[in-house]
Amino acid sequence: MRLMRVILLFGMILGVVVGSGAISDAQSTLGRGAVVALRNTPHIWVADDSGVLHWAGDTRALATRYVDWGARRDVELADLRQLRRGDPWLSSGLLKMGDPIYLVKWETADPAPTLFHIQSLADVELFGINGDNYGSMVFEQPAWEGRFAMSAGALARAALASATIAATPTPNIFLDAWRLNRSPRIGLDGDYRFVAPGTWTDSHGLEGYVLVSRDANTDPMYSSSVLGRWTYLTGTMPTYVMVIASNLDYNKDVRTVSDLARKSVTYWCKTAVTCSGADSTTAASFTGYPWQKAVSRARVVYSAKVCDNCTDLVERVHEWIGYHYYTIRGNWGYEVRIFGESIDTFPARAQEVISVMEKSRFES
Questions:
Q1: How far apart are CA 345 and CA 80, in angstroms?
Q2: Any idea where the domains of the chain sit in the sequence?
Q3: Distance (Å, rounded) from C-alpha 290 to C-alpha 271?
Q4: CA separation (Å) from 346 to 104, 228, 240, 355, 356?
Q5: Given the DSSP bridges, would you call strands 157-159 and 114-117 parallel, antiparallel or unpaired?
Q6: Element containing residue 266 per DSSP (H, E)
Q7: What is the pTM of this model?
Q8: Could you point out which of 18, 200, 290, 308 has its C-alpha 20 to 30 Å from the C-alpha of 156?
Q9: What is the pLDDT of residues 179-205, one digit of tens each?
């Protein structure tokens, strides 16, 4: 209910800014089925019999609608906001899981829907959600699962391209001047001038502690190099840092920092029983480059012997929290990964590394 009130208030404020009932001349020229596309985004709206626009959630939602694909126009965000918009056309509604709201996007050719995380309340409003239709369009997880007879937790997730937030500029990874025919080097005299805090120990191997490679997936994604590993030991709950460089010449699907973040976190999650974070990123800025931060939660479960001579297997459970920072420089994507299990000590240890990142530099 609190979120619904925020959306309603947001829409009222936006209506005052744009102007009550402000409809451009373009509205009157929108015939039935006309398509209005928001420039530089994948989002489209389709006009009904009265010329009112409806955001199209997926192809299933359009299956019973008339769409005149030949009558398409591309508009800027400011122009779209002045056009009359109604309820979105959705096949499977919007799903609220905690704070995030997801578009349940179910294309006609797909066997199951994908959950696309809507990036901001401004996006939610632009898509046509308001205080009047919130209850019939946005469903809490139990209500959605009961209505559509499927488990939301089992569905794939991704980030929905924002309609209102400008994309973070990133260097062109194929035209950038910094191209290396070798793995980048880390350190004061390296390509990436990053030095771990003095209280941290080199490597991840700790005497008397189960190897990290068994407890979590620390292998980097394809064609990557681990530039450095460090450990901070607090009792029996260490915090770890990895700096990874991935060769993007061999990861052609990575075109932006967001692509890099999603692919890397998905790979980190691959051995976990449950894992989140691949669809959640925020902007950061270090070394004069745009970075993105993803926060992951991974649960790893496996069976192991507790001693060399033991015959019985004991179930081990690890609950990891990870901070992942990503940027692209030339043909290399960089990740600084901070991860641990102690909720009490992890934030302070992570801040030590972040303070180092704020002072680190790339070789000019």
A1: 47
A2: 2-159, 192-362
A3: 29
A4: 34, 19, 9, 14, 16
A5: parallel
A6: helix 257-268
A7: 0.52
A8: 290
A9: 777 889 898 888 888 888 877 888 765
d(CA 144, CA 138): 9
End-to-end CA distance of the chain: 51
Tokens of 23: 């409809």
What tokens were used for 264?
A: 């890397």
Rounded Cα gap, residues 105 and 322, in angstroms: 28
Of 209, 252, 202, 248, nearest to 227 (Cα)?
A: 202
> How far apart are the C-alpha atoms of 104 and 174, rounded to whole Å?
34
Q: What is the pLDDT of residues 115-170, one digit of tens each?
A: 999 988 889 999 999 988 999 999 999 999 999 999 998 888 888 888 987 654 44
Burial class from Cβ neighbours inside 10 Å (0-12, 13-18, 19+) for residue 117 reads middle
DSSP state of 191: S
Angular region, 141: left φ>0, alpha ψ -120 to 50, beta rest:
alpha
> 192-362, what's its fold?
Protein Transport Mog1p; Chain A (3.40.1000)
Measured CA to CA, the distance from residue 123 to residue 138 in angstroms comes to 14
Q: Give the whole-angstrom CA distance, residue 100 versus residue 95.
A: 8
Query: How does DSSP classify residue 277?
Result: -
Please report, for residues 27, 238, 352, the alpha-carbon distance to residue 41 in angstroms, rounded to integers and kept in the order given: 21, 43, 38
User: Rounded distance, CA 316 to CA 99, Å?
Assistant: 30
The secondary structure of residue 154, as a DSSP letter, is G
Q: CA-CA distances (angstroms) from residue 27 to 14, 32, 304?
A: 19, 11, 66
